[in-house]
Structure formats: C-alpha cells, structure tokens
Amino acid sequence: MKLLDRFLAGDRTALSRVITLLENDRDRRSAMLDVLYPRSGKARRIGITGPPGSGKSTLTDRLTARLRKSGRTVGIIAVDPTSPFTGGALLGDRLRMQGSWDDPQVFMRSQADRSHTGGLSEATPYAMTALDAFGKDVIIVETVGVGQSTLDVTDVSDTTVVLLTPESGDSVQAMKAGMMEIADVLVVNKSDREGADQFASELKMIVDMGRWEEGWKPPVLTASARDDTGIDDVYERLDAHGDYLADAGRLQTRRLRQGRSAIEKALGELWQGRLTVLQDAGDAMDRLSERVAQRELSPLAAAREMMDKMAD
User: Is 41-248 CATH 3.30.1330.60?
Assistant: First the structure.
C-alpha cells in the first residue's frame, strides 16, 4: 500500500512519514502537496506566540484538553530551537505537554526552527497542510520564543494568541516587538505573579487606543496555565473569534492575504533551489561578491545578474 494511500486511510505512522518528507525532501514535496492541498482548508488554525518562558507549551496543553473534551481532534506543531548537536528540535515542548501525549486523536510534531526567523520553521506550513488533509479539526502552532522579529505565525493562523508575562517587560516593549499588532487575543500568563494586573491594565489601555478590525477588539485576559486558571475564558474567546471570522467572509479575506504571502515565500524557495543546483553558481557568486566588495557593482545589480543566469 502506497504511503499516501495509507495516509488517506488514517494511518498515523504514514502521517508522520509524510510530514518528514515534506520537511526534508524537496524533490517530492511539490507532488505530495498537489495531492494534499485540495484536501486541506477545513481545519481551524490557532497560533500561539510569545517570548521564551511565557508558558506557550503549558497553555497549548490546557487548550488541547478542552478541545478534546468538546470532541474535536487536534494537531499540534511545536517549533523548538535547533539542537547544536543533532540539527533537530530540542523537544523541550514534549516535556511540558504531558496531558495529551497518549491520546490517539492528538498528533504532536516538534520541528526545529533551523535558524529560520519569525518563530516558525520553513516547513511549518507544509506540516499544517498534512495535518489538515489528515482530517484534524484544529491545528495549534506554537512558535519558538520570539522577541523583536518578523512574526510569521500570522501567515499560517486564523487566530493568533499572544502570550505575555509580567516579566516580559513593559507594554511599550510589547508594542516594539510587534506583538500588539498581530494579536487577536492577548493573554497575560502567570497571573499570580506580582505586577500581572498592572501589566494587563496597561495592555488594555493600548488596545483601547488602537485601530482594529471592525467588530473585533483583542481582549486582554489574565490566566495561569500552570494552575489551570483563566483558561476557560481564553478557550471561549478563541471560539468567539472563530465565529467572528466565519461571519461576512472575514476568514476568506484573511486566507487570501495568507495565500499571497505563501506564494511569495514559495517563489523565494524555488529561486533558492535553482541557485543550489545551478552549475558554477558558487564561482559566479564569488565573482559577483568580489565586484560588490570593490564597489564596482551594487548588491541589487549583482542579484539581477544572478537571476538572469538562473533564467537562462
């Protein structure tokens, strides 16, 4: 029985193998996505992001328990820092997600970020497509701890939860990191810590002054994922945002924007792939780099020359 046939029949081992191939086998990736992509698009996609140590894994575990209680199946992609020894994920998230590890209706995948900026792995969207096509009702993506970086989680999520703690810094720092702009739901975790209520009040003031989508202003919630308090409120707001998106074509509008971003990234991957296999690419880059270093050629002009070479 072929791998994709086993996948479509609901074989979890085949699902794991498909994700591995999507992550590592560029030659087979496109053909596999041609099969999987038309079968995807039905799952609810939730992104959880925030600074390192903010409790993302514990919150994911708590929300997963509630989703399962409601009868929904769940796929989890947890992006970890890359191990300096193996090149794979450090798997720290698995240690903090003990509540659902033995549930056959929960599939969790750890991915190494492989130094990819933005809090995700380059292969995260492909793994999400596989989970979606496999029939998972909800897909949760937990980013690697991010600070002032491009937050790619909005390009793959219907709803983005930004998790902060009293130790994350003041509200101005949260604005600088770009987290306020991407949040659909803001959660101040570790609400038992000193300064949590004050921090939440500051965030609410910033939200009140902001300009948001008509009909939805990001709620600012307090919770303690460790103690499992305030999580019901987070869960309810996530469902409320899902209902909001389902109305008036808002979800489709959001996914159209995400589709454009996905095409732009795919174009970059294709060009990078061409550069990798192009004969004499290294020599050409060396020659162009020398001319750029000597100020004979601008980097943009050198890039154009390299693209012309790849197009030949």
Answer: no
